[in-house]
Structures are given as C-alpha cells and as structure tokens.
Amino acid sequence: MTTDANASEPLSFLGLDFGLGYDNATDVVSAAANDSSSLVTAASTTVGVGPPASSASSPVAFVASLRDLNVPYAACEALVAVMAVAGNALVILAFQRERRLRRRTNYYIVSLAMADLLVGLLGIPFALLASVGLPHNLYACLFTVSLLVVLCTISIFCLVAVSVDRYWAILHPLGYSRNVSTKKAVGEYPARPPK
Fold it and tell me: From the centroid of its chain, how far is CA 18?
C-alpha cells in the first residue's frame, strides 16, 4: 500500500467538503517546496482548513460557498425543479378530482408523479447544495446525498412499474385484464382465509 501525499482526499468525496477539521499540512508544505502557484491550489483543496466545523454553518460560510455556484447549471436545475413540481402537482390534482381517471394503470402514473414531485421539491435543491459543497457537517451531507439517491431510485422504480404494466397490458391483454385489478395496483389484497 503506497502512501498518498494527499491523505485527506477521501474526505473530499465528489467535490464535497465534509468539514471534519483536519489540517493537511503535508500538502501545503510539499506544494511550497514545488512552487508558489501550487501552494494556493494545495491550500484550497485541503479539507477542513480554516474555522472548525461548528462555525462552517454560519452565514459567512454559506455566502463564501455560493461563490463556487455554477449559475447556468443552477438556473437550469431550478427551472427543472419548478416545472417538475408544477407538472406533477397538476397530474396528482387531476387524478384526485376526476373519478374517471382512477383506473389501474393511472395509479402507477400517479405514483410516478408523486416520486417526481419529491425529486423536484427535495432532490434538486439538495443536488444544488451538494454542487457547492454544502452542508459541511458529515452527517448532514450524507443525509442529503442519500436522500437524493433514494428519491431518484424510487422515481426509476416507479417508471419501471409503469413500463412493466404497459408491456403486460399490450402483449398479454387477456391475461392482464384477468389478473390485474385496481385493488392489486393499489396494493389492497383480499384477506386469505386461514388454513
């Protein structure tokens, strides 16, 4: 196993500073030995250099992290979030108000709309925070990234359920109408009598 000069690099995963308060002085010293331009680079990439993690959530640290914000990316993400929330809210509202839409296939569509609504409400804002390296607390960072992954996975599985439902309905229409009911789509199964 070789020793890496940047020992704190695993703490800065995917560009996220976990703010654990480690001072990686070896990088700064080795960079100073090379040249002064890499000293600035090494000092800026070390994890947790500066104030302790408790003061990293201050408004000053938040404003400082916004300097790293990619404005076109953030604008596109915000537009996608607003469109996702508005469009999926309309789908859910239409399904709730119109009784004729309450068919077995549409339950899968509404499930997908709810998952995408949560992605727009929570997932995209957390992705924007992660893109600028917030939050600095390890557990908060892990929570936001984990929630983002879970929400996107739920959305993908809902899309798979819609695809399987449509595939089965088109290729095997008689078996589909015989075996799939609205109660099964919602998840209400009749109670089985005891044996």
Answer: 17
Owner of token pair 């700064």: 28
pLDDT digits (tens, 9 = 90+) for 143-162: 999 999 999 999 999 999 99
H-only helix segments in the chain: 25-34, 36-45, 59-66, 71-97, 104-118, 124-131, 138-171, 173-179, 182-186
Start-to-end C-alpha separation, the chain: 61
Q: How confident is the model over 132-137, as a mean pLDDT?
A: 86
The tens digit of pLDDT for each residue in 75-122 reads 999 999 999 999 999 999 999 999 999 988 899 999 999 999 999 999
Q: What is the pLDDT of residues 160-181, one digit of tens each?
A: 999 999 999 999 999 888 888 7
Alpha-carbon distance 115 to 162, whole Å? 13
Angle CA 29–30–35, to nearest 5: 100
Cα→Cα distances 60→50, 63, 65, 67, 142, Å: 13, 5, 9, 11, 22
The residue behind tokens 């947790």 is 48
Write down the pTM of the prediction.
0.63
